[in-house]
Amino acid sequence: MSDTKPPVCDYDGSDYQASFWDQGGRAYEDQVEAIALRRLLPRGGELLLEVGAGAGRNTARYQGFKRIVLLDYSRTQLQQAQQRLGRSGRFLYVAADAYRLPFVPGLFEAATMIRTLHHMADAPAAIQQVRQVLQEQAIFILEFANKQNLKAVVRYLARRQEWSPFNREPVEFAALNFDFHPQAVQGWLQQAGFTIERQLTVSHFRMEFLKRRLPLSWMVNLDAAAQLTGDWWQLSPSVFVRARATGPSLQPDKSAFFRCPDCTHSPLVENPEVLVCPACGREYAIQDGIYDFRI
């Protein structure tokens, strides 16, 4: 595989979970996202992939799945997830690049990517990678930051922002932080081999002055009702999509779980502290319960 790839947003060493979620006044966002996940997730299954798992904020919400693979580029985020969830056969911690998923094709019954796509400079490529490792008829729950949100529309019409929320081009509002047009995301999903089943609009009331004035329970209940308009229009800052993998999937190599993210060979030779690719010779460390496939 070529060494040329999009840049990666690396949260290694970050206290993101503590500073943004635990102490950042994000209880509203967390609760409404939990509601959206309950509405969209399948009842359960054998194996789920969580792309951009971070410190495992959402992992406990995937209760119906027997095994969950937490994938993140940051080792320190995965270490925090271990502290939250523990080490057991139910959770597998993998440090890897979302553009080079280290799994054999057709492995997973479901996947989620929550608050992760907005860091992808090549979002279609990341979506295609997820499709490749999913079984036929598998469910993919994708969340994306919506450039056509109501606040952006009002600001643009009032000439208070230069970029248009109506065209399909992504807008990079900070380094490796992108907002996407809903129709662009829908198109990328369809091109990758997904059929969209349902959309929910989330975090409609993500405004500080409302958080200061309204009880949290009111905001959560109002958002829960407003989410149901997602199939009609998408004007919220965050959109959740339930998509199904359609068309033929590559059949998984039943003798393998991982594949080399560099040359795509499988199976790998597993030793206690390292995985070795017999085709290209690359070695991938296994340290403190974390498989490290970063290149």
Describe what this molecule looks like in 3D:
With 295 residues, the chain is an alpha/beta fold. It has a single domain (16-292), classed as Rossmann fold. 26% of the residues lie in helices and 25% in strands. It has eight helices and 13 strands. The protein has helices at 16-22, 27-40, 75-85, 123-132, 150-157, 182-192, 208-213, 216-226; strands at 45-51, 65-72, 91-95, 108-113, 134-145, 171-174, 177-179, 194-202, 238-245, 269-270, 274-276, 283-287, 290-292. The strands form two sheets. An eleven-stranded mixed β-sheet has the order 8-9-5-4-1-2-3-13-12-11-10, with helices on both faces. Strand 11 (274-276) and strand 12 (283-287) form a beta hairpin. Helix 2 (27-40) packs parallel to helix 8 and helix 4 (123-132) packs parallel to helix 6. The protein is globular and about 60 Å long. The mean pLDDT is 95.
